[in-house]
Design a protein that fits this description.
- The complex is a heterodimer.
- By secondary structure, chain A is mainly β.
- Chain A is built from no helices and 12 strands.
- In chain A, strands 2, 5, 6, 10, 11 and 12 form a 6-stranded mixed beta sheet that branches. A 4-stranded antiparallel beta sheet of chain A has the order 3-9-8-7, with no helix packed on it. Chain A has a two-stranded antiparallel ribbon with strand order 1-4.
- Chain A starts with a strand and ends with a strand.
- Chain B is an all-beta fold.
- The chains are: A mainly beta, B mainly beta.
């Protein structure tokens, strides 16, 4: 089965704290892609990062970093020194085929992050 | 460059009516996908269109349909509206391909009363 699990429904932190959002995925594909999106209160999901299944290098972009580990099927997202503007719902997604040659995007249920001033 | 445009932003309809939502993708994007977002179910995939052909379909009843025009603009239609159809409907466009990220519109908030 193809599945994305974001076990944390909601996280609250105080500004400047570090926070990690967990994402665990399941797929039988050897080639797949993982994504993170941010959905602020305005409603529009914004693409943050993509990883392919062959690239396990961690990535850092400013205060954001991502840890991809195939051994644990996880693609976690860390925000360092969180800010109020980071408050949003964050979605992890998997793009995988279903054996038919076509692919589908599967989103996790999202983690609502609240950063308190 | 212009983003993904969805119209209208808000809609209130009565049970039993039908509704059409519109999505204009980013110029050059040939793939348009539709998602339904509700607090209880999260983001549920409705369908994807690529070059005017439906390429993928989610597990929604036949009351939900869509189409894509030659300019890549897409519409989705919901007939015989039910209260449970109240949701945020999001459209996403991409160049197509498994590795592509999506650009989302701001959504249409549909309320069925």
């Amino acid at each position: 089965a193809q599945k994305v699990t974001q076990a944390q429904t909601e996280i609250s932190v105080v500004e400047k704290e570090d926070v990690t959002l967990d994402c665990v995925y399941e797929t039988r594909d050897t080639t797949y892609y993982l994504f993170w999106y941010k959905q602020p209160p305005s409603g529009e999901l914004v693409f943050l990062i993509r990883r392919n299944s062959f690239d396990e290098q961690n990535e850092i972009s400013g205060r954001y970093s991502w840890n991809f580990q195939k051994s644990t099927s996880s693609f976690n997202f860390t925000i360092t020194a969180s800010q109020v503007v980071d408050s949003a719902v964050y979605f992890c997604a998997l793009s995988a085929t279903f054996g038919s040659g076509t692919y589908k995007y599967i989103f996790g249920t999202g983690t609502r992050l609240k950063v308190l001033a | 460059k212009a983003g993904v445009t969805q119209t209208p932003r808000y809609l209130i309809k009565t049970r039993g009516q039908q509704v059409t939502l519109s999505c204009s993708p980013i110029s050059g994007h040939r793939s348009v996908s539709w998602y339904q977002q509700t607090p209880g179910q999260g983001l549920q995939f409705l369908f994807e269109y690529f070059s005017e052909t439906q390429r993928n379909k989610g597990n929604f009843p036949g009351r939900f349909s869509g189409r894509q025009f030659s300019n890549s603009r897409s519409e989705m239609n919901v007939s015989t509206l039910e209260l449970g159809d109240s949701a945020l409907y999001l459209c996403a466009s991409s160049l197509g391909g498994q590795e592509r990220s999506y650009t989302f519109g701001s959504g249409t908030r549909l309320t069925v009363v």
